[in-house]
Known about the structure:
Order of helices and strands: HHHHHHH
Helix content: over 70%
Mean pLDDT: 85
Number of strands: 0
Radius of gyration: 23 Å
Largest sheet: none
Structural class: mainly alpha
Shape: elongated
Oligomer: single chain
Strand content: under 5%
Number of helices: 7
Amino acid sequence: MMDNSSERVLQRYLGEIESELEQLPRSVRREITAEIRSHLVEKWRRCSKPTEENMLNIINNFGEPGAIAAGYLEERSTEPARSEASPPPAWLVIVLTIFLWPAGIILAWLSPAWKSRDKLIATLIPFFLAAVLAAARLLLEFLVG
Length: 145
């Protein structure tokens, strides 16, 4: 079991690597950081005394986050391209969301190009607009009637 301070040091380091890999899909970034985490934790557990200081030494010997990320990015750029269908263009998702809400939302949620926050916002916009229109109608009825 890792102590809290060692865990925080490791999480900060992995977070820096993950942010350097931002151009990769989230699933790939998570896979890479899980691999690195496993490697570092294994080295830390082999220490005679697993401490925060030993974790810092292991991390320092492993390398700078930018250099580690660059190595993974280079490795990924030399891999043959996968035959994945490209995500739909953002303009198509936006147009379909406006005029044919369910189709646009489905495309948005299936697209790796959209972040989860953006997908959630796109999903909730019609409900927000409906609430605003209902409130406006109630206010209008109150003022007129």
